[in-house]
Design goal:
heterodimer; A: mainly alpha; MetI-like fold; B: 263 residues; alpha/beta; Rossmann fold; four-stranded antiparallel beta sheet; 10 strands; globular
């Protein structure tokens, strides 16, 4: 019984272990210099050093704070506007062409303007993240509302629902079905935009940390930053988005477990 | 409420019903010049070939569609849109996937502002009436098709409508479940005294369930015949109904009427 429970974890760990082995063995075999690809030991030593002086945690917290704030602001705008577009023909006619135009240049294309408007720092970075989260989830919300079966509206109307009841019991949950599935991909976009924005407009954060390290040929810091980004994403995906899915769309039978 | 016994529960007067969808550029006439009356506590079944507009007629009584001409009234009052006095049971159940069975059944009561404790009590009574007492904590997707339809009937009845409109409710369940649901529906109808307007394409189902069976011709649907089902309820046993000569005669007659128009 115990092996059965462990199996998915073992399977998940195997490719990581494989890469770690290749990373340890290949550079010395092919004599790649350490400034191009430092060994795992060097990166590990760097991790201990930066954890010890607290700077790594500082960078991580700053990045997560920006991501969270951008995520909240982006969604607070995307969900109500998306619902309005989904339910109202006029709102859709009025807003969709403009928003589609803006969608093509969402995200890091805004970094230059954001820096001009907000200066180097939090404002510009959060603006870029909120921007990309907004466009990603705006369309998820619209699709969510549009894919609510007509029978649900008819059913609640025949049970005496008011317009507000319909919004609360049909439209918002219906939109969230698509949103929850979309949260993960939007957050992945946001995460990438964050690192990109910090490379250009940051003086702190994980993106800034890696770029700053390049100037001093501290390649181990660059790789450490990339690994941390991946690890944080893995943890968020498993413990935030998976959990949210399990509590909602999987529970409702809209997404099926394998 | 004082209900005038003489007044028909539903009266459809010379109604024509059209609908538009992406298949038709112009509004498509589904039902033409239909006149009928359904009395209180009657069980009326509508049969007809597919596309005869029987579901459009039901949708118009529910208030989802507005008739182009003529009028549709409930208790003598013009119907203007959907309302809680006319509960609807859909072929595909239309239970909200994000609510438990108990919360789905209590939904109409919630819209009326009833407290959680009160509506749970009423919802449980109706779940028991529909044979679903053990399923209240489940979500719709965890139920079989037959159980989902029981939940949908419980949801409609918990809201105490005057009329229950049923749009081919048993078309998607297997034959065995279907027979059980038909028997249960008659039992529930007799216990609640709700007026039932039931749409089906099955002639056997229509005769087993109905006080009267209305046959619609194919599109645009017009009333072809109104057949009284003069078999006593106590003689309508599904296991022996097939060999009842009166049932056979009615089945042959109604089948002939329906088939004359089938494309």
């Amino acid at each position: 019984m115990k092996t059965l429970k462990l199996r998915p974890y073992l399977l998940a760990a195997t490719p990581f272990i494989g890469i770690l082995i290749l990373w340890t063995v290949l550079p010395s075999l092919l004599s790649v210099p350490a400034y191009k690809l430092p060994s795992p030991q060097l990166v590990w030593t760097k991790a201990i050093e930066l954890t010890g002086d607290g700077s790594l945690l500082q960078h991580i917290l700053v990045s997560l704070y920006r991501l969270a704030l951008g995520f909240i602001v982006g969604n607070l705008l995307a969900v109500p506007i998306g619902i309005a577009i989904g339910v109202n023909r006029h709102a859709s006619d009025f807003l969709l062409p403009l928003l589609t135009f803006l969608q093509s240049i969402a995200g890091i294309a805004w970094i230059p303007l954001a820096v001009l408007w907000f200066g180097i720092g939090d404002g510009a970075i959060i603006f870029v993240i909120a921007n990309i989260i907004f466009f990603s989830n705006l369309y998820n919300t619209v699709i969510g509302v549009e894919s609510i079966p007509q029978a649900y509206y008819r059913a609640v109307l025949s049970l005496g629902a008011s317009r507000f009841d319909i919004l609360k019991t049909v439209i918002i949950p219906g939109a969230f079905v698509q949103l929850i599935v979309g949260f993960r991909s939007s957050m992945a976009f946001g995460w990438r935009a964050l690192i990109g924005a910090e490379l250009i407009a940051g003086t702190t954060g994980l993106g800034y940390m890696t770029l700053d390290a390049v100037q001093w040929y501290q390649t181990e810091t660059v790789i450490l930053g990339m690994i941390i980004v991946g690890v944080i994403w893995l943890v968020m995906d498993r413990f935030l988005f998976r959990k949210l899915e399990t509590m909602t769309v999987r529970r409702w039978g809209i997404l099926q477990d394998k | 409420m004082i209900v005038n016994k003489e007044l028909p529960k539903i009266s459809v007067d010379n109604a024509s019903i059209a609908y538009t969808n992406q298949d038709f550029a112009e509004p498509h006439l589904a039902v033409k010049d239909v006149t009928l009356e359904v009395s209180a506590n009657e069980f009326l079944v509508v049969v007809g070939p597919s596309g005869c507009g029987k579901s459009s007629l039901l949708a118009a009584i529910a208030g989802f569609l507005t008739p182009q001409g003529g009028s549709i009234k409930l208790n003598g009052k013009q119907i203007e849109g959907p309302g809680a006095d006319r509960g609807v049971v859909f072929q595909d159940y239309a239970l909200l996937p994000w609510k438990t069975v108990l919360d789905n059944v209590g939904l109409g009561l919630k819209f009326r502002g009833m407290s959680k404790a009160e509506r749970d009590k009423i919802a449980r009574e109706h779940l028991a009436l529909c044979g679903l007492a053990d399923a209240e904590a489940k979500y719709p997707h965890q139920l079989s098709g037959g159980m989902r339809q029981r939940a949908a009937v419980a949801r409609t009845l918990a809201n105490q409508p005057e009329v229950m409109l049923m749009d081919e409710p048993f078309a998607a369940v297997d034959a065995q479940t279907r027979m059980t649901l038909q028997e249960e529906l008659v039992r529930i109808w007799q216990q609640t005294e709700v007026t039932v307007f039931f749409v089906t394409h099955s002639v056997e189902e229509a005769i087993f369930l109905g006080d009267r069976v209305m046959v619609l011709s194919s599109g645009p649907g017009e009333i072809k015949a109104m057949v009284d089902i003069d078999i006593e309820r106590k003689d309508r046993d599904l296991s022996s109904l097939n060999s009842n000569p009166r049932f056979q005669a009615l089945r042959d007659e109604i089948t002939r009427l329906v088939r004359q128009d089938a494309a």
